[in-house]
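Student:
Attend to each token:
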Amino acid sequence: MKSWKEFSQEEPELALRGKQMLLQARCCMGLGFLATLRKDGAPRLHPVSLVLSEDHLFVFIPPKSPKCGDLKRDGRYALQACPPPENELGLEFCISGAVKCIADPNIRQGIINQAAIFVEEPEQLFELLLDRAMYTYLVDQGTPREHPTHLIWHATPAACGA
């Protein structure tokens, strides 16, 4: 799993396109749809607000939310960016990976201060670590040859001893 910063260093163009899709509303705040796994293994989909801070992607989730329980039990997730308004190019961006629970109150407060957001005290902070990212756009739109093109990144495992 890689942080957003590591992903950005490995695939700067793909990360920039993804950042533009994830953070359409504000410079460090975004919206997306978070998929988690229920206890029975079925998928669960939730709209979430995202925070990009210090080149790390975070989400705050209320502790009583089903998605919080899902992530604490099985940290795997998939996240789809909200498509931009008037999406003529068929743009899509999605990532998947696993979350890391952040308990450090200093990190939490730093993120809240930087993003200038209100977060209720009990909300749990998770960092979204990535193992895959995909950006999609349409080519030859409006012609019989119209088709999607995918830019895909997969995290490479760290070398032994690294």
